Amino acid sequence: MITPNMHYRDLKESYLFAGIAQKVKKYQMEHPEKHIYRMGIGDVSLPLCDAVIAALHEGVADQANKETFHGYMPECGAQFLRETVAKHYAERGVILDADEVFVSSGASDELGDILDLFDRRSSALVIEPAYPAYVDANVIAGREIVHLASGKEDGFLPEPRENFKADILYICSPNNPTGAVFSRNQLQAWVDFANENGAIILFDAAYEAFIEDETLPHSIFELDGAETCAIEICSLSKTAGFTGTRLGYTVIPKALNRCGMNFNAMWVRNRTTKTNGVSYIIQKGGAAVFTPEGQAQIKANIQIYKNNAKVLMEALDQLGIWYTGGKNAPYIWLKCPNGMGSWEFFDYLLNEIQVVGTPGEGFGACGEGYFRFSTFGSPEDTKEAARRLCELLGGK
């Protein structure tokens, strides 16, 4: 009899977003006349920019002609896109070879697939509150997980600790769900820790495009020594609205080695075994993101989301509620008022003002008593949600 992967039994029930959906559906059935203000979803609401749409159309047209038709794409990514991404990094002072850039179908896929590079006996350190997939992917692999708690006291930006030993270090900056961003000195401490202990950082940079404070690092490879201890996973989902189009990229330096094994070469071998590459049409659209026109257009869209963040932050400031995030990230992480629990606050907002956010408890035990607002909604809904929030909680 075949033996399934028994580690699936160790997964906690994925109740967070399912629980939210059930509660909202029940409320809507009971109050069909009410409009729901959705500040919880992490999906974008603006369409792809004009430069990307034009490039996608060009890609489709290319597939209609024998001379320009593309079949299977290179497993590690089209050379034109790998070179484009490397040039984008160079503009920030990070020098990469094009073959240190790997094109993916998105950061979420890559965060799971990348674990193929590590022995199952290796341990993983997860800073909590955390994106749930970090934990779940390692549970499925049967890997030991070290949980590092963070909180209001350290701004949800903990420092490495000497007594913590782990092989894989997950760092997400700007962070999901907290919106907190590591400073250069804080991130350098993690790079030094990884090199000193032979660990490898998996750096999730899905939200780097939202950083407006240029003293903050966009890439871990801006830090000294990162090329010998880090893998960076990036996404165009939030940067350029590719949530439904699916495209990202991963940077693995050739200098990253452990136990006589080279991680760049290992990932080439993995990709050429496990994928047939990402669609030519999608990669064509992705390359347009990095043109001058594309950059101007995606920044204009990001500014709309950042204006949403400003509206919500002004409401929270008016109410005297503690929060982090918002300025350099698309998420705002707030302390639930009046000692409320995360789900208690969720129910309160839904029932009283029809505003939906995400209970912090769903991101780990450290999130209890906190709440996440997303800034990806429409400006109109965001302004009304902020007004209702102030009215409900006593703002003037």
Descriptive report:
This protein is of the alpha/beta class. It has 2 domains: 6-48 and 294-393, Aspartate Aminotransferase, domain 1; 50-291, Type I PLP-dependent aspartate aminotransferase-like (Major domain) (Aspartate Aminotransferase, domain 2, 3-Layer(aba) Sandwich), CATH 3.40.640.10. The protein has 12 helices and 15 strands. The protein has helices at residues 16-30, 50-62, 79-90, 107-113, 132-140, 184-197, 237-240, 263-274, 280-289, 292-319, 342-353, 379-393, and strands spanning 37-38, 101-104, 124-128, 145-149, 168-172, 200-204, 230-235, 248-251, 257-258, 261-262, 323-325, 331-335, 355-356, 358-359, 370-374. The strands form 4 sheets. It has a 7-stranded mixed beta sheet, with helices on both faces. A 4-stranded antiparallel beta sheet has the order 11-12-15-14. Strands 1-13 form a two-stranded parallel sheet. Helix 5 (132-140) links the parallel strand 3 and strand 4. Helix 10 (292-319) runs parallel beside helix 12 (379-393). The N and C termini lie far apart (67 Å). The relative contact order is 0.17.
How would you describe the oligomerization state of the chains in this entry?
single chain
Low-pLDDT regions: none
Content-based structural category: alpha/beta
Please write the CATH class name of the largest domain: Alpha Beta
CATH topology-level name of the largest domain: Aspartate Aminotransferase, domain 2
β-strand number:
15
Distance between the termini: 67 Å
Q: What is the helix tally?
A: 12
Side-by-side strand order of the widest sheet: 2-8-7-6-5-3-4
Biggest sheet layout: 7 strands, mixed
> Into how many domains do the coordinates divide?
2
Q: What sort of overall outline do the alpha carbons produce when their principal axes are compared?
A: globular
